[in-house]
Backbone:
């Protein structure tokens, strides 16, 4: 649906896929895309959670919604996912690589190879493979928009999430490289979120987090709905001259 104030933000007739789309920022983007007129594909490892969001989309917006259980770190699974989407809808216009993983570990020397590989698999290997497959099909068709969900950890890495930060830094590099590979008809950009109060934040030490947030220019964490503006901008024709960009949505954290 086109906005009278901001023409170009509508997604009528488009199909959008969001990995990690069953909760948190992913769910917010799924609902926003559907509200903007897109049919949506919700992807995560848990089919029941995806089905819940798909049902919510159908009830609230009347748009088509497909739930698909896929582990994004599994290379071959991406081929099946993309084939399923094109069989169902015949096209894919927006891809959001949102699925992420940042497990806790006691110390850097105790990071296991299994943990390291798992973090790289979800945050970097999966987005690489899915972007390669989807970008090639988009470029051969009518084009499209690919959005990678990075993290400010990519630019402000800390010892408590170092494998995750390394993977997200790699994702920023993929964003710029794929923008060159699949232009001019495919735009590839990244959103670099800061601290958002999603379900993951329930596991945070909020006292320590609050001490950090007071040093941010906006002095607070983000609400999940506050990812929507950036996502709609990059998904839609409103960003028709934007590619290879990494947009920080972090309350000003990276401006420090």
Residues:
């Amino acid at each position: 649906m086109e906005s009278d104030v901001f023409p170009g933000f509508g997604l009528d007739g488009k199909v959008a896929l969001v990995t990690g789309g069953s909760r948190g920022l992913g769910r917010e983007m799924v609902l926003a895309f559907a509200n903007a007129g897109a049919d949506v594909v919700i992807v995560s490892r848990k089919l029941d959670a995806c089905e819940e969001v798909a049902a919510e989309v159908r009830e609230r917006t009347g748009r088509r919604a497909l739930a698909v259980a896929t582990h994004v770190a599994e290379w071959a699974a991406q081929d099946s996912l993309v084939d399923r989407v094109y069989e169902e809808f015949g096209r894919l216009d927006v891809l959001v690589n949102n699925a992420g993983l940042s497990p806790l570990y006691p110390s850097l020397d105790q990071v296991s190879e299994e943990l390291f590989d798992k973090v790289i698999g979800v945050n970097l290997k999966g987005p690489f493979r899915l972007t390669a497959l989807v970008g090639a099909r988009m470029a051969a068709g009518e084009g499209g928009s690919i959005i990678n969900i990075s993290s400010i950890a990519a630019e402000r890495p800390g010892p408590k999430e170092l494998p995750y930060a390394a993977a997200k830094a790699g994702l920023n590099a993929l964003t710029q490289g794929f923008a060159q590979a699949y232009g001019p008809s495919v735009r590839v950009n990244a959103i670099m979120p800061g601290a958002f109060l999603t379900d993951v934040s329930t596991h945070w030490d909020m006292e320590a987090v609050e001490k950090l947030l007071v040093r941010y220019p906006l002095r607070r964490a983000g609400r999940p709905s506050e990812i929507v503006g950036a996502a709609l901008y990059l998904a839609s024709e409103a960003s028709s001259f934007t590619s290879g960009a990494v947009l920080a949505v972090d309350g000003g954290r990276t401006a420090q």
